[in-house]
Amino acid sequence: MIDVLIVGAGLSGLVAAHTLQKHGVASTLIDFQRGLGGTLTSSQHDGFCFDAHNMALVDSLPFAYLRELGVEDALYNLREGVVAFERGNQQLIDALAAHVNATHLRQMAVSSLGWLDNGGFSVCLENGMILQARAVMLAIPARYAARVLENLAPEVSAAFADFLYDRVYRVSLGFCQSTLPETLEFAFDGGHVFQQRTRYPTRAPAGGEVLQLGVRLGVTNPDEDALLHYVLTHYGLPAPDAYVITHNPTADPVSCYDDHHAQRLDSARAHLPRGVYLLGSDYTLSTPPRAGVLRLDERIAQAQHAALDLIQQLRKPTS
């Protein structure tokens, strides 16, 4: 039997695994993706560094934890109160991954949880495999947690059944600085959510600049060429030297901002079976101060606290 199964190998899952490991508790990570990091991944294109999620972060990351991971000097200022990682969000994920030696089951998805007669949980995977675990940490979006918990904890499932997400596409563009205007005319509206730009030398080649634009669309899977043309035309931009367009259907929770979110979380946690934990941005209370800026401090603290609580539970003597 697995001691702790962590479903989701993004930031929250990795922090939980790291915290458990530091206290001598083994865990197994499982994720439907091949790699680690969830949406906090980065890629290099012709010398430009693009993030799959927001490049901008609230300047509230815990310094002591960054120092523990060896990335305390990896942030630079985008503007007051907003920072970015020199080599993209992947830099934080890679630092965490270097410290975590948990088993990682790749390209596997959990379909449901159930009770075991002798204590613990049965974990049914979509491929039909069944795992057994003493405890389960669900570091997955609320939309998926609702499905996984439908049989084990129907009250929790119901609390998240109607959890909503925004449909934001991130268009990351790399240019030669000399081809760009000093400022872009930008007004927040229904279709244009945010813009970020940086000339930091590890983010762009010499003389280059990165723009990241958030665009809300009413359709899924838009034609990429048409979307790029629309963005360039709207802002009066030339053809980029490199670009990446990313979208994750659960990257931008909307229900976190409604008046009932805290009540929803309280209700869900009150009905969670002992030994099951919910981790991730969908279950935090603090919201970013502005569009296009990620807040990671509460997610890190949440995963650490859940792991420490679980350690106490696992070490309690059984009757």
Q: How would you sum up this structure, described in words?
A:
The protein is an alpha/beta fold. The chain has two domains: 2-41 and 89-164 and 254-315, FAD/NAD(P)-binding domain; 42-84 and 166-248, Polyamine Oxidase, Chain A, domain 2, CATH 3.90.660.20. The protein has helices at 11-22, 63-69, 90-99, 142-148, 154-160, 224-235, 261-271, 297-315; strands at 2-7, 27-30, 42-45, 48-51, 56-58, 75-79, 82-85, 103-105, 110-115, 121-125, 130-138, 168-176, 192-198, 208-216, 242-246, 276-278, 293-294. The strands form four sheets. Strands 1, 2, 8, 9, 10, 11 and 16 form a seven-stranded mixed beta sheet that branches. Strands 6-7-5-17 form a four-stranded mixed beta sheet. It is globular and about 70 Å long. The model has no long low-confidence stretch (mean pLDDT 93).
Short description:
With about 325 residues, this protein is α/β, with parallel strands linked by helices. It has eight helices and 17 strands.
Strand and helix map with partners:
Blueprint: E1 2-7, H1 11-22, E2 27-30, E3 42-45, E4 48-51, E5 56-58, H2 63-69, E6 75-79, E7 82-85, H3 90-99, E8 103-105, E9 110-115, E10 121-125, E11 130-138, H4 142-148, H5 154-160, E12 168-176, E13 192-198, E14 208-216, H6 224-235, E15 242-246, H7 261-271, E16 276-278, E17 293-294, H8 297-315
Parallel strand pairs: 1-2, 1-11, 2-8, 5-17, 11-16
Antiparallel strand pairs: 3-4, 5-7, 6-7, 9-10, 10-11, 12-14, 12-15, 13-14
Helix pairs in contact: 1-3, 1-8, 4-5, 5-7
